[in-house]
Amino acid sequence: MNVIYPLAVPKGRRLRCEVCDAPAERVCRACTVTYYCGVVHQRADWSSIHEKICQLLIPVRTSMPFYNSEEERQHGLQQLQQRQRHLIEFCYTVAQKYLFEDRHEDAVPAALHSLRFRINVYGLSSVELVPAYLLLAEASLGLGRIVQAEEYLSQAQWTVLKSTECSYATHSLLHRNLGLLYMAKENYDEARYHLANDIYFASCAFGTEDIRTSGGYFHLANIFYGLKKLDLADTLYTKVSEIWNKFLDNHHQVLSQAHIQQIDLLGEHFETDTGLDEAQEAEAIRILTSILKIRELTSDKSPQKTIFVLKTLVMLYYLMMNSSKAQEYATRALNLAKERQLSVCEQSTIQNLLSLIKAEDAHPVT
Ligand SMILES: [Zn+2]
Ligand SMILES: [Zn+2]
Fold first, then answer.
1. Nearest ligand to the C-alpha of residue 42?
2. How far apart, in whole angstroms, are the C-alpha atoms of residue 128 and residue 114?
3. pLDDT confidence tier of residue 262, bands split at 50, 70 and 90
4. How far, in Å, CA of 59 to CA of 54, rounded?
5. Is residue 4 within 8 Å of residue 21, measured between CB atoms?
6. Whose atoms come closest to the Cα of 17: which ligand?
7. Distance, CA 38 to ligand 2 centroid (Å)?
8. For residue 5, is pLDDT > 80?
């Protein structure tokens, strides 16, 4: 799939390959509205996103029925837009999740879908296209295609420049991806400049201590770590761990309070028991396990830092209801605390955590 994907999609593209836009020779038999140049791209699309949205594409891609009145026609249009908006968000989250899992090849078809539906709904010059360009840039970077990544990034930059209504959140994402690009090119000064901007805009949008701001700190920490500026890296890794720990801890408390008071949280926008969407969960795992690896190298000197990250991972997996992983990290934390002869208090906190997970595993709370 080493091609530049088309940014503009010509009308009447139905008979072109979903993945590379070449003339199509195959059709998905399940939905009959999706075409491919051959079996390779069909398989790639299926395992990335098509399996999940095959049936959802039918109402979006079949021609509009004949309407009896203007009112009906408007209603039909609105419904179509709503379906496309849903697909935009869904494909975006799936692609982002793949990126956090290092599945760059899989991210491409899902990201392309998000881009296509954005073009349909918002038009070719809308700033709404930027998040999808950035996904494609990040996937290209992950696949080692730097030139392609640069093309997507300049497309994103150009769109932002022309726009008067670009949100802080989008500015933050743009700078984060430019930071990643310059990291890949080993231009660390430029990378730092963009990551500092990422943190600034994310802080304006969400606050300095928000999980959505933590990604910028994390990448900046990685740069300092690579440059052997270990004190700076250490401070930033601590900040990132604390942000995630606090988020998960707060969320856990909200859930237990709700449980005690029997409040139904369904209406409260919690998509899962972690309060995170799938992509954010993948990001949390990615960030925390990377920091853990680095912390473990210095466990001799400062075991508390390793234990802190382990405990944060325990909380994450506990809320994700993956009790075997939660137990695994809790056991590792407990063993380290005993081995390094940490205070009895610290040991018993971890012991309590472990007992809680084991108890709930035996008698799940419903
Ligand atoms: Zn193709
Ligand atoms: Zn299909």
1. 1
2. 10
3. low
4. 10
5. no
6. 1
7. 14
8. no
Distance 86 CA to ligand 2 centre (A): 17
Dist. CA 334 → ligand 2 center (Å): 49
* Count of CA atoms in the C-beta half-sphere (13 A) of 36: 19
Is 266's pLDDT higher than 70?
no
- As a whole number of angstroms, the distance between CA 97 and CA 107 comes to 8
Over residues 32-46, the mean pLDDT reads 94
Residue 24 alpha carbon to ligand 2 centre in Å: 14
Q: Round to whole Å and give the CA distance between 26 and 235.
A: 54
Q: Which residues pair with 16 in a beta bridge?
A: 23
Ligand approaching nearest to the C-alpha of 19: 1
Please report which confidence band the pLDDT of residue 9 belongs to, taking 50, 70 and 90 as the band edges. Answer: very low
Ligand nearest to the CA of 18: 1
User: From ligand 1's centre to the CA of 92, what distance in Å?
Assistant: 21
Find the 39 Cα to ligand 1 centroid distance in Å: 9
Q: How many residues does the chain have?
A: 366
pTM of the model: 0.85
Q: Nearest ligand to the C-alpha of residue 51?
A: 2
Q: Which ligand is nearest to the CA of 57?
A: 2
Q: How far, in Å, is the centroid of ligand 2 from the Cα of 42?
A: 9
Q: Tell me how far apart the alpha carbons of residues 107 and 254 are, in angstroms, rounded to a whole number.
A: 33
Ligand index nearest the alpha carbon of residue 21: 1
Q: How confident is the model at residue 272 (pLDDT cuts 50, 70, 90)?
A: low
Torsion angle, alpha carbons of 325, 247, 104, 101, to 10: -10
User: 62 CA to middle of ligand 1, Å?
Assistant: 21
**Domain segments of the chain: what residues?**
242-366
- The ligand minimizing its distance to the Cα of 28 is 2
What's the farthest any 2 CA atoms get from each other in the chain?
A: 78
pLDDT in tens, 220-247: 999 999 999 999 999 999 999 999 999 9
